[in-house]
């Protein structure tokens, strides 16, 4: 009984810790370095007689009471929003705004957490053929996989249950040749790998085999024809040189012909 109580207590404690951690991790707003962002706060009835204060990580970055004493007037819209012109990693954290009536009672408060993330870069998809398990192992390579969401596409269909960085597909499930892509995403961006067609030897589909056979056959035929042509050409030349010129006039013409021919058909060098 004591054991169960302890377990129950531990489970609750763990759950509570998880909840705290999750809260710590989640942000209300996301941005990437270099972009500009107007924090989505608005107090439409804002007038110049209101007291407006913006706080970033417990530090006052804007204060207006009649006149602006901290920050710049152009950093605030007419609604009281704060404009972050060029986001840096140091821009992240908690933003709070306090609007006070002229009689110093609170008119509106607002708190949001901003996270600044790099855009994801294009993942590199690679695979290995594992013959012991008869499966293709695909790997969606990225430099920093922390906090990224992975997804997989087979042909044009998203594999809903596959959300890990790696994917294993048995040879049996790949009877025909099929294409894979992997996607990575974070809160602000998404990128896809190039398409990959895994071809472990047992995966060579009928289609590909035929294509290869046709290609190989065609290549062979062309090569064969080339040999025949070259052979015939050389044979003809040799015959010609054997039945060479008879008189001097003929010889001159023949030489010119030879020179021209020699330049254009270097494959058929025959000895004179
Ligand atoms: C802001 O102040 C609160 C309470 O004083 C503190 O718990 C919190 O850690 C501070 N936050 C930052 C970012 O300094
Ligand atoms: C003021 O707020 C309204 C409604 O939220 C919005 O449509 C408008 O663009 C805001 N104006 C400025 C200058 O931020
Ligand atoms: C302060 O001013 C606001 C707006 O003018 C008003 O609604 C509120 O009742 C006032 N509060 C006090 C305590 O006078």
TrEMBL record:
Please provide one cellular component term from the Gene Ontology annotations of this protein: membrane
UniProt keywords (A-Z) are: Glycoprotein, Membrane, Signal, Transmembrane, Transmembrane helix
| Keyword Aminoacyl-tRNA synthetase found | no
Residues crossing the lipid bilayer are 211-236
**PROSITE patterns hit by this protein:** IG_LIKE
Stretches assigned to the Ig-like domain: 123-193
Main localisation: membrane
Q: Does the keyword Signal apply?
A: yes
Top-rank taxon, per record = Eukaryota
Entries under Gene3D superfamilies matching the protein: Immunoglobulins
Signal sequence bounds: 1-22
The places in or outside the cell where this protein is found are: Membrane
Q: What is this protein called?
A: Ig-like domain-containing protein
Q: Which organism is it from?
A: Neolamprologus brichardi (Fairy cichlid)
């Amino acid at each position: 009984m004591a054991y169960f109580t302890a377990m129950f207590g531990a489970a609750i404690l763990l759950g509570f810790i998880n909840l705290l951690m999750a809260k710590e991790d989640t942000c209300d707003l996301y941005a990437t370095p270099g972009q500009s962002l107007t924090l989505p706060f608005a107090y439409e009835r804002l007038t110049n007689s209101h007291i407006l204060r913006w706080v970033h990580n417990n530090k006052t970055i804007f204060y207006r009471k009649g006149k602006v004493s901290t920050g710049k007037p152009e950093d605030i819209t007419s609604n009281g929003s704060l404009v972050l012109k060029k986001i840096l990693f140091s821009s992240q954290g908690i933003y709070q705004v306090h609007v006070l009536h002229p009689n110093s009672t609170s008119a509106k408060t607002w708190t949001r957490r901003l996270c600044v993330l790099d855009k994801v870069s294009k993942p590199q998809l690679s695979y290995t053929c594992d013959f012991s398990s008869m499966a293709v192992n695909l790997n969606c390579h990225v430099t920093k996989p922390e906090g990224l969401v992975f997804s997989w596409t087979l042909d044009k269909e998203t594999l809903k249950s596959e959300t890990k960085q790696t994917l294993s597909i048995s040879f049996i499930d790949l009877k025909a040749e099929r294409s894979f892509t992997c996607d990575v995403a974070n809160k602000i961006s998404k990128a896809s790998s190039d398409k990959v067609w895994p071809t472990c030897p047992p995966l060579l589909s009928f289609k590909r085999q035929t294509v290869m056979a046709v290609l190989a056959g065609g290549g062979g035929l062309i090569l064969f024809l080339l040999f025949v042509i070259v052979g015939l050409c050389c044979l003809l030349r040799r015959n010609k040189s054997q039945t060479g010129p008879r008189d001097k006039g003929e010889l001159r013409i023949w030489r010119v012909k030879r020179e021209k021919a020699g330049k254009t058909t270097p494959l058929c060098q025959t000895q004179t």
